[in-house]
Amino acid sequence: MFTGIVQGTAEVLSIEEKTNFRTHIVRLPAEMLPGLELGASVSHNGCCLTVTAVDGDRVSFDLVKETLRITNLGDLQPGDQINVERAAKFSDEIGGHLMSGHIMTTAEICKIINSENNREIWFKPQDASQMKYILHKGFIGIDGISLTVGDVTKSKFCVHLIPETLARTTLGAKKLGQRVNIEIDPHTQAIVETVERVLAQREAALLAAAADQLAE
Question: What CATH number should be reported for the domain holding residue 134?
Answer without folding.
Answer: 2.40.30.20
